[in-house]
Write a structure and sequence with these properties.
Butyryl-Coa Dehydrogenase, subunit A, domain 1; Butyryl-CoA Dehydrogenase, subunit A, domain 2; Butyryl-CoA Dehydrogenase, subunit A, domain 3; 4-stranded antiparallel β-sheet; 15% strand
């Protein structure tokens, strides 16, 4: 699957690989240590790479590519720095509810600034008391005339410090449960919206993560994405479509860990020989390579299912996300082990990989949530075979 890339796809991958090598990887540790959003670098990426609208349809000004191309871009950027990849790519998640549920007029109005590199959009679903338990969220949007009044708080919002707008999920009819959730496009400068506490995180420190608070935040009914009470469906479609991108992040991190570990194994000497000659180290490198290659294959399968509108997307995107996120964590841990004491210090790059990798097992659905979804499909398939 992975090997059957088109000429266009190879060119896109190689463009991002070269840019990452020259511009992202050299500054990754610097921005991690500063706990700072790389504004100048992100602006340069938006200006020079020309991929802001990579997956936005041509009729809305985008390039019209699909999940496969997005995964190629995401893997290469994550290979350089997961946090910086998120700084550039968070809009890919934030724009999905608009693409999945918005009207033609909404898509044109809200996506053209994204294509131009002028706007970032953050996805607001998780809350302080409702992470994996999405139906347990408490944010509400009450309709008054031709306006909605939003009250609530969103937590762990990636890119919120830089975003120009937010796609926000709220109950418009709590009594209907998930069938009473709606989605709204809320510009950053809307009165009543506050980008609050910045989280001081273990990893992905260059990527800003904030709480976003809504206090009597008033938006016109024109900012309701698609139709009222269909927001939960838009959220499910968004998460299924975005999980291959998170899987690609895992592949990129795992590949980076393998790159560093393999090079170090050829340089470091113990007992009078290179540590890469020791079978114990060779087996760790072999395990890392297996994770990278198999993870890349399942990620590309999920991406192609997404592009084809295949009904099995949910199952395979969950498999890809679960496998590659846990695989990235294992590869990062093994890289630290191969580096030994040096790997535990900030002087070498692998301790950052270990800190960054852990978030992949948590955000956009924990590994355990992915396994719940996979198991549900397995049981359903077994039942259908009776």
């Amino acid at each position: 699957m992975y090997q059957s890339l088109s000429e266009d796809q190879i060119q896109i991958r190689d463009l991002i690989r070269e840019f990452t090598k020259k511009e992202i990887a050299p500054v990754a540790i610097e921005y991690d240590q500063k706990n700072e959003h790389p504004t100048e670098l992100i602006n340069k990426m938006r200006r020079e790479l020309g991929i802001n609208g990579l997956t936005i349809p041509v009729e809305y000004g985008g390039m019209g590519y699909g999940s496969v191309e997005q995964c190629l871009v995401t893997e290469e950027m994550s290979r350089g720095c997961l946090a910086i990849a998120l700084c550039f790519g968070y809009t890919g998640l934030g724009q999905l509810p608009i693409l999945k549920g918005g009207t033609d007029a909404q898509k044109k109005k809200w996506l053209e600034p994204v294509v131009a590199g002028e706007h970032g959009i953050s996805f607001c679903l998780s809350e302080p008391g409702a992470g994996s338990d999405v139906p347990g969220m408490s944010t509400k949007a009450v309709k008054k005339g031709d306006k909605y009044i939003i009250n609530g708080a969103k937590q762990w919002i990636t890119g919120a410090g830089d975003a120009n707008a937010f796609t926000v999920f709220a109950y418009t009819d709590k009594n209907r449960g998930t069938r009473g959730v709606s989605c709204f496009y809320v510009p950053r400068d809307t009165p009543g919206l506050t980008v609050a506490k910045k989280e001081d995180k273990l990893g992905i420190r260059a990527s800003s993560t904030h709480q976003v608070i809504f206090e009597d935040c008033e938006v016109s009914s024109e900012f309701l994405i698609g139709k009222e009470n269909l927001g939960f469906i838009y959220a499910l479609h968004t998460l299924n479509a975005s999980r291959p991108f998170v899987a690609a992040m895992g592949v990129g991190v795992a590949q980076c860990a393998l790159d560093h570990a393999a090079r170090y194994s050829r340089e470091r000497e113990q007992f009078g020989q290179k540590i890469g000659t020791f079978q114990a180290v060779q087996h760790m490198l072999a395990d890392m390579s297996i994770i990278v290659e198999t993870g890349r294959e399942i990620t590309m399968k999920a991406a192609r299912l997404s592009d084809n509108g295949d009904p099995n997307l949910a199952k395979y995107s969950a498999i890809a996300k679960a496998y590659t996120s846990e695989g990235a964590m294992k590869c990062a841990l093994d890289a630290v082990q191969i580096f030994g004491g040096y790997g535990y210090t900030k002087e070498y790059p692998v301790e950052k990989l270990m800190r960054d990798a852990k978030i992949l097992c948590i955000f956009e659905g924990t590994t355990q949530i992915q396994k719940n979804e996979i198991a549900a499909y397995v049981v359903k398939e077994a039942a259908s075979q009776k």
